[in-house]
Amino acid sequence: MVNSSIAPPAPAKASTIARDIKGRIRNGSYTDMLPSSLDLAKEYSVNPKTINKALRNLVEERLIVRIPGKGTFLRSAHQSSAHRTYAVCGQLEGHLYQSLSGALFRGIQDAGGLPVPLDPSVGGFATSPELYLRGLLDKKPDGIVVIGGATTPYDTFYRYQDEIARLVFVQRMESDLPILAASVISDYWYGTYIATRHLIEQGHDRILFVTHRHNDQNWAPPERRHKGYIQQYNGYLDAIHEDGDRREYVCSQRMGHYGDISGIKDLLLSSEAPTAMVADSDFRLTKTLQSLEKAGIGAGSNTPCVGFFNTPWAESHPGGMSSVDIQETELGTQALRLLLSEETTYERVVVKPQLVIRNSSRK
Q1: What pTM does this model have?
Q2: Percent of the chain that is helix, strand, coil (3-state, to 5)
Q3: Which of 195, 264, 318, 361 is the most buried (most CB within 10 A)?
Q4: What is the phi/psi pair of residue 148, to 5°?
Q5: Which class for 196: exposed (0-12), middle (13-18), buried (19 or more C-beta within 10 A)?
Q6: How far apart are CA 80 and CA 113, in angstroms?
Q7: Comparing C-alpha atoms, which of 319, 322, 251, 325 is closest to residue 291?
Q8: Closest listed residue to residue 308, CA positions, set 192, 201, 186, 145
Q9: Which domains does the chain carry?
Q10: Beta bridge mates, 74
């Protein structure tokens, strides 16, 4: 008698799939390019993530290379990226951009390239940019990808650009200098715009924007302005004025001064106090809410709010903090495509963030 309750065989594990693909490579079934991850997932009846894990094993065994936007190739048949070296520099530590920097390093290795090892003795990227970049160029990398920010030494890259074979800025490009580089930029304006519109749709008309540096008259002097913060501020303004004449509530909470809530105290104690907050970072919003709660002002950590960057600070917020996700994986994929391209390109790619909604902004 046949037992119809017997479960179907379990899907193949990544290690088993990797061994099978390796066998196909050795017997000549694959001579140049492998099928796509989706096609392999269908063939083996597994999730594409399992296929990617299997292919990762073969990359580590140096049997294949994976080129973003092109496909997966046998290393012996695709040597254009093999043995090339690429440098990743910028903000590589801390709670910001960990996914982005990790994706860049893995992508370089998957393509058969080697990340350039950096000597800490040459000085810091932001503190000693000239020494840092000179030490980097002495290693003659085939390309450099820079996770850009407000402190990135753009003027140094501008002076040395003729010595850089391929330069790609990713995440932010704050300079107006005519640097010969490709760029993959996160749309900060759109991120704050969708965050603010979400709070408006939740019924909030008085929304406070908590930012890095701002005063009642103007932004900081031009030489100290951060384009990213200005774009976020403009996104907030466009959102609150899109369908009504709402009041602007803006407060500065600078790094290292989160215990000082004097700028926000009077606003929250007024008769027309803001009922929700949007901030230019999860960290800034978290520290602001903690300071308010400690002082017994407003709703503290229960204030309806949306952060920015979707970092662990948002996840650890009581009940979860809604936050703007800048799509680090997509930023990394596009940056790798430009870095590893066979043709010189100065393309500019803009990646739109997405809003991750958690309990902090739900009714």
Answers
A1: 0.76
A2: 40, 15, 45
A3: 195
A4: -80, 155
A5: buried
A6: 9
A7: 251
A8: 192
A9: 30-77 (1.10.10.10), 85-187+327-352 (3.40.50.2300), 188-325+356-361 (3.40.50.2300)
A10: 64
